[in-house]
Amino acid sequence: MRQKSGTGKAPAQQVIKDIRRATRKQYGAEEKIRIVLEGLRGEESIAALCRREGIAESLYYNWSKEFLEAGKKRLAGDTARAATSDEVKVLRKEARDLKEVVAEQALELRLFKKSMIADGGDDE
């Protein structure tokens, strides 16, 4: 019995695709920056750089665009700086202290209202 054309290839092609995806090289931020900066220097063509690094030109141009956009945002001051763990601790303590003050104020207000009701309200 013969199989239809192409049905036998599908599982094998999927296996190959999965293997390629699993073994694909992952580039860290520093490697991406190095490659983009090499491309910006212009000492060799982008095509040659990409061949040497084993990446697609479209990937290089995506990284380049991201790199330049991030730099533009940073220079414009649009990016938020990540807080250090010490700063987070200080901010959490400050938030806790403020919550306590609000709770105390709410309690005092509630007690004041109760005392006003007990006194019969306004004496004016």
TrEMBL record:
It comes from Aquamicrobium aerolatum DSM 21857. InterPro entries: Transposase_8, Transposase_8_domain, Trp_repressor/repl_initiator, WH-like_DNA-bd_sf. GO terms for molecular function: sequence-specific DNA binding; transposase activity. GO terms for biological process: DNA transposition. Gene3D superfamilies: Winged helix-like DNA-binding domain superfamily/Winged helix DNA-binding domain. Residues 81-108 form a coiled coil. This is Transposase. Keywords: Coiled coil. PANTHER family: LOW CALCIUM RESPONSE LOCUS PROTEIN S, TRANSPOSASE.
